[in-house]
Amino acid sequence: MSSKIIRFACDYDEGACPEIMAALAATNFEQNPGYGEDPHCDRARALIKEAIGREDAYVQFLVGGTQANTTVIAAALRPFQGVLAASTGHINVHETGAIEATGHKVLALPDPEGKVRAATVDDYVKAHWADPSHEHTVQPRMVYISHPTEGGLLYSLRELEALREVCDKHGLYLYLDGARLGYGLVSPAADVTIRDIARLTDAFYIGGTKVGALFGEAVVLLHPDLQKDFRYMIKRQGGMLAKGRLLGIQFETLFTDGLYTRIARHAVDLAMVIRDALKAKGVPFLYESPTNQQFPILPDAVVEKLSDRYAFEGWGRVDDEHTATRICTSWATPKENVDALLRDLLPLL
Amino acid sequence: MSSKIIRFACDYDEGACPEIMAALAATNFEQNPGYGEDPHCDRARALIKEAIGREDAYVQFLVGGTQANTTVIAAALRPFQGVLAASTGHINVHETGAIEATGHKVLALPDPEGKVRAATVDDYVKAHWADPSHEHTVQPRMVYISHPTEGGLLYSLRELEALREVCDKHGLYLYLDGARLGYGLVSPAADVTIRDIARLTDAFYIGGTKVGALFGEAVVLLHPDLQKDFRYMIKRQGGMLAKGRLLGIQFETLFTDGLYTRIARHAVDLAMVIRDALKAKGVPFLYESPTNQQFPILPDAVVEKLSDRYAFEGWGRVDDEHTATRICTSWATPKENVDALLRDLLPLL
Amino acid sequence: MSSKIIRFACDYDEGACPEIMAALAATNFEQNPGYGEDPHCDRARALIKEAIGREDAYVQFLVGGTQANTTVIAAALRPFQGVLAASTGHINVHETGAIEATGHKVLALPDPEGKVRAATVDDYVKAHWADPSHEHTVQPRMVYISHPTEGGLLYSLRELEALREVCDKHGLYLYLDGARLGYGLVSPAADVTIRDIARLTDAFYIGGTKVGALFGEAVVLLHPDLQKDFRYMIKRQGGMLAKGRLLGIQFETLFTDGLYTRIARHAVDLAMVIRDALKAKGVPFLYESPTNQQFPILPDAVVEKLSDRYAFEGWGRVDDEHTATRICTSWATPKENVDALLRDLLPLL
Amino acid sequence: MSSKIIRFACDYDEGACPEIMAALAATNFEQNPGYGEDPHCDRARALIKEAIGREDAYVQFLVGGTQANTTVIAAALRPFQGVLAASTGHINVHETGAIEATGHKVLALPDPEGKVRAATVDDYVKAHWADPSHEHTVQPRMVYISHPTEGGLLYSLRELEALREVCDKHGLYLYLDGARLGYGLVSPAADVTIRDIARLTDAFYIGGTKVGALFGEAVVLLHPDLQKDFRYMIKRQGGMLAKGRLLGIQFETLFTDGLYTRIARHAVDLAMVIRDALKAKGVPFLYESPTNQQFPILPDAVVEKLSDRYAFEGWGRVDDEHTATRICTSWATPKENVDALLRDLLPLL
Are D214 and D251 contacting, i.e. CB atoms less than 8 angstroms apart? Predict the structure, then answer.
């Protein structure tokens, strides 16, 4: 890894925000019982319940997002039931079949923008039950959305309410993957709060890995049927961390003094700087993301020229001469890195 | 958690050894690619290969032991194949069916001591193939052992060689769960080195969680068939850590300057102090463990009296007035804690 | 297959009883909708509900016993739950891990006779919930018994009631595998009726394959939670027979005019003839079976001498000179075959 | 079921062709060992190997198509591998997630006609391996096709050869679902023989259920890796029929004196009569099927008028006034039924 490369390739290139590193150091020699039954986890749970305004929530901490998705989905569904998701959804594409490994089909809904629409869900589920052979097809039982989506987009409050409504109508669980939730909550375009999410979904997770933690996702289960015996599921899925305190300490820190929000805002602010600068140059974007991931479509020659100093991720070729790239900022991105990038990139456009 | 309780309940009550905490702090702002493809993981791999004397080994890092067991076993077996294990083996008892979750039966072998005997394996596999209905029973394909065992016991070199031999004879993989490997390697009773293990098994893992790390197990795959596409399995099983560097940094540290051995020896030395002191008082033990876990059988009244100052784990009642307890030391146990325990305990015996 | 060999090796050596063959021939050109939604299945369901005295039962037909067991068990359990069974139970031994293939552990209870005892269940489940680490072990949720057992034994009404009681106490489902149910119901030793079974279990199946049908098992679901969406499970498990009528016609025939009982009685009567004749000669038996399977322990020399004219199944060696054999009669066994066997066998004893 | 309704709804509305019923009756009292190890199965295997020209084929008989697909696919794939199929393929739509139940993702390829194109496969697999994150996505390892397809279409020899080529290029298995194979082989449009299929695929099955048998599919495994231990897989998947002879007898009969071909031709001839008559009236078709399933697009009013005398299956609405219907003929369809249908239908068009 050359020290000269500045990485914008993803939002988990660094360790953890200094507050978390300090908390881990400070508590290192405490003796705590394992498996998430320690005072740090308890305190983190209390802080999260307060933040989301749901005393009846059940909160457990897992190490990663695939674990969170798999454990929640497999806990919620009977064997013949499936989960509806955008065809570009993380569970449908980027988890090496981890959902299918638990015996469940991901029912992919086509959507050019990567968002699940209430109307599409309604059509799908109505068609399922109207089919006289419905027992020969997977029964839809849950809707999976990510917020922000894979492409950095946000659901509006209206869209989320519509999803809740269609889920109620058809007896579906609504589950929100919040791997980058922090970046979504602080976006200038956001009209959805974490309390809205806690009010409108049956389960969601608050992403730590990509928002300042070393690792960790706080799974929040709201529907009582999902809460029961969930820790058995965690263990069965291989997700029970021995030193659960590590997760508790991190979320305790993130949810103290607004740290989670503050570091997310830093990242989004820098992303907006990049976006505005490129837009001013007329650069087109693959998605109109108001969050920390930006997807400018750049000439290959430009990408090539920058490649010895900056790392982006390719997000698919657009035509013979252009590539959609992903540029991520994070809680850890120094403003100077953004300045350097723009200084080097803008003149090439 | 009262600060007055001294915990001997398990060997993962604290965080990580200071060298690891320092390394994590020092590297916190490095930018590294994710998923175990960073220079720290590479360096840790090189150090492990050197330590085990197998340049052809394939090393990957996972967060926990259940993950390691599940991923290795499910990667190795075809769907109708099972894994032989002692009936007390971790995979048969304490993983909430995580192996069965991947579709495989654990074929439990009775053994009063919790060790798998080569002769028992031989009998089992011969009986399987001699049965004209063998297609109606799970096909044995792997032997799972832990070293030290759940009860803190060690395989001798002779026993391990016999297992290798019976595995070769019947076309079985030999897999060793090394959750507490460090404590086994440094035991005064040990005649098996890590190089023996790397020579005699098809796969094993080097436990970090219980031996000084915050978390992490180094899975070492020796048989080429197990190496192929193993990273797909990790991702599919939900075990691909985004910031894989955290695992690399920890194992890099543990395998530098003999740290892994040194901290393990500290724990075992203290365990021997406890063992010898209790033996001198005539206390019987459930297992004759030469490692960091001790299983003295204590009068209930004694256990009760200590319970406001020390935490042990109950390991099953022996009769109406006695309980087998587990007393663990670890890399983190201060000598003063052992002194205090003996000072309070011995007079009660 | 030499025509000179008379087979007593199992109770499914022949096709189906003539009444079934006639019914299949008579209905062959009827046009019926598929998948068990035809008038024959409906009529068979009505006849079974009447026979068991439970109008609220839900009845579905499957092709074989492993399918029935797998589908019922996987429909009933959440992913981290397991099924208690005798260690010799069919699901634990002779289904090539089909239960584990659905992700569930069979929790084997030791029992020398192959019967599950209420007290053993009680102890197991109490120990589970008393264990502070219970979330690290598979949660018991169902009791599986077979009636008759693998060894031909029967549960008494008192034993069955005790199992019901312990299941109620601990919130367990009670499931009865009736692969050879007919032979159990008509045994001179039986004090359990099919109505008792329908009253005391949550689910059971009425075996057809081994009791006169070409194939087929009638799964009877009594607990409402097991009934819901069961047909999805059948399809998902690969057990939805296209021409479901074939199952309906067979059970319609078996449950008309007492055919099921009549043919079972024929088999058991002949088995008792064999049993009594061997007992009169002082032959010991592996199990004291009052049903159609007999397990006499015979000298190897005798088995060897008969082997060119009779096929039995070996059921395990008892000592260097004796083998436990299984001799099965069935609905199809002609009295002459039994006469011939005894004529040839008795003089050798 | 009113006797006045003539069903064209599917090709498994009746029992079996008379030759099979006669063979089952004639062998009913034979004593045979179970599980497909009887002389009838052996003879059926020999006849099939001769018919397909592959002495090295391994043939096993299963009861149904979902079972066949699930067992072959799960036997072939490692846990993280998936199977490419048309999005309309049976395994992707109509098996209630039976493939996912074995832990594998169906990788759906869009294709308006329901056929898998070699070029689409090539693109997909090249893109997979070119993706630097390929370990985060399911690894493609098998191509599933059905012949005829769900829509009654056939692969040409050229198309099949191209698929073989692309599979060889990328190390994929090629598997052909022949649920309606007979109807495909005898179609006037067919240029693919069963020997071509046995030469070009790694595995396929010969459908019996829909082509004259009571039930049954002959799975033909050509690639040696798929043959090994396949019977374990059958048992594990719940597909091991106790009286395996029933499958043997049926395929023995179907492959004697060209019965399989003869009855398939009867069905296709009648389907062509229907097709030609409707085409002469200008009726459009959803698929240009040259096999026993026809998909005419009919005015709703016409469908409604016929519904008290004929049963079709709806195959999706085309516009506000038209529905695509499926009209199936089979080995069992009397010419008079077709005459009656056309007599009643044509005047309405």
Answer: no
Give yes or no for D236 touching C (CB within 8 A). yes
Q: What is the spatial distance between Cα B210 and Cα B178, in angstroms, rounded to a whole number? A: 10
> Given strand D139-146, what is the order of strands in its sheet?
D58-62, D217-221, D203-207, D173-177, D139-146, D81-86, D106-109
Full set of structural domains in chain B with CATH: 6-12+261-348 (3.90.1150.10), 18-254 (3.40.640.10)
Nearest CA in chain B to D237: B80
pLDDT in tens, B315-339: 888 999 999 999 999 999 999 999 9
Best CA proximity match to D144, nearest among D50, D77, D215: D77
Chain B residues near residue C136 by CB distance under 8 angstroms: 94-96
The pLDDT assigned to D1 comes to: 39
Neighbour-count burial of A336, counting CB atoms closer than 10 A to its CB (0-12 exposed, 13-18 middle, 19+ buried): exposed
Report the residue of chain A nearest D103, measured CA to CA: A101
Please tell me if residue C252 touches chain B, with a CB cutoff of 8 Å: no
Contacts of A177 in chain B (CB under 8 A): none
Chain C: closest CA distance from residue B50 (Å): 35
Q: What is the pLDDT of residue A1?
A: 40
Q: Is the per-residue pLDDT at B138 higher than 50?
A: yes
* Spatial separation of the C-alpha atoms in residues D45 and D35, rounded to whole Å: 14
**Backbone phi, psi, residue D89, to 5°:** -60, 150
Q: Does the reported pTM lie above 0.80?
A: yes
Contact residues, chain A, for C231 at CB < 8 Å: 135
**pLDDT per 10-residue tile (average), chain A, 349 residues:** 76 96 97 96 98 98 98 98 97 97 97 92 97 96 97 97 98 98 97 98 98 98 98 98 98 98 97 97 96 96 93 89 95 95 95
Name the closest residue on chain B to residue D134, using Cα atoms: B232
Looking at this predicted complex, what is its ipTM?
Answer: 0.96
Cα dihedral value C243, C245, C249, C252, nearest 10: 140
If you average pLDDT over residues D108-136, what whole number do you get? 95
Question: In terms of CA atoms, which chain C residue is nearest residue B315?
Answer: C131
Position C2 scores a pLDDT of 44
What distance in Å separates the CA atoms of residue A97 and residue A142, rounded to the nearest whole number? 17
Report pLDDT digits (tens) over D323-342.
Answer: 999 999 999 999 999 999 99
| Ranges of residues in chain C whose predicted pLDDT is under 70 | 1-3
Q: How far is C91 from chain B (nearest CA, A)?
A: 10
Which residues does chain D have within 8 Å of residue C235's beta carbon, measured at their own beta carbons? Answer: 66, 95-96, 98
> From CA D102, how far away is CA B190, in angstroms rounded?
42
Choose from B72, B141, B236, B240 for mutation: most chain D CBs within 10 A: B236
pLDDT value at B228 more than 90 = yes
Chain D, window 62-101: residues with a beta carbon less than 8 angstroms from a chain B beta carbon: 74-75, 78-80
Residue A2, pLDDT score: 44
Answer yes or no: do B135 and D232 touch at CB < 8 A. yes
